[in-house]
Design brief:
mainly alpha; Rna Polymerase Sigma Factor, Chain: A; Arc Repressor Mutant, subunit A
Length: 226
């Protein structure tokens, strides 16, 4: 039975520990739950996105998982890590959706959304050219991550992107520690190979010379000869 929503957060700090927030949520404090969601939204979205490979699907899955977490949070034990506990719920929701998609033989499109945050701007990275380069690199990396096999992609997102520990990743996905390590190693190898192939392909086009540049140099020389 779902409990009544209340607001008990008159003295709640935004930096309150997860365990304190979980206790307040269990008592029906929706403001505490909002703080929890905002605190862990990015990691949990990336968890769903890694499984579903679709921004919109991940965004739809997350509220469902949050509601499940809200209703079950009374069973949370503070000896565990709350973010890992919720991430497991998110992963299960995403996997359930993926199984439904597979049964319907649905095609999951690759959308170049904001699965990864852009590289933070610095004084040297604020020019339009730098911004365009960083955006191009981000999209390339996202596309290669999306092309990883499902098992490798999910582990890579949790370990390499969100920097969860091996133990936390294993807990979220329900797999052995050794499997986490081997899948991360394999995912990194696949990414390196894919990115290296694209870089090799781009070598020939680097420092392009034909076209306007060629014409300018020839015209300059001919003008001087004249």
């Amino acid at each position: 039975m779902r409990r009544m929503k209340t607001n008990l957060s008159t003295a709640l700090r935004a930096d309150a520990p997860d365990a304190e927030l979980a206790g307040r949520v269990a008592a029906g404090d929706t403001v505490a739950f909002e703080i929890l969601m905002r605190r862990h939204n990015r990691m949990l979205f990336r968890t769903a996105r890694a499984i579903l490979r679709d921004d919109a699907e991940a965004e739809d899955a997350l509220p469902e998982a949050y509601l499940q977490a809200y209703n079950a949070i009374g069973s949370f034990r503070s000896d565990a890590k709350l973010s890992t506990w919720i991430a497991r719920i998110v992963a299960n929701e995403a996997l359930m959706r993926l199984r439904k998609q597979t049964r319907r033989a649905a095609i999951v499109p690759l959308q170049p959304g904001a699965a990864l945050d852009p590289i933070p701007d610095t004084d040297m990275n604020t020019t339009p050219e730098r911004s365009a380069e960083r955006e191009q690199m981000r999209r390339l990396l996202e596309a290669e991550i999306d092309s990883l096999p499902d098992d490798y992609r999910t582990v890579f997102m949790l370990r390499a992107v969100e920097e969860l520990s091996v133990e936390e990743t294993a807990d979220v996905l329900g797999i052995p520690l050794a499997t986490v390590r081997s899948r991360l190693f394999r995912a990194r190898g696949l990414l390196r190979a894919a990115l290296a192939a694209k870089i090799d392909f781009a070598y020939e086009a680097a420092f392009g010379f034909a076209g306007e540049r060629c014409d300018r140099i020839v015209a300059n020389v001919l003008a001087r000869l004249a």
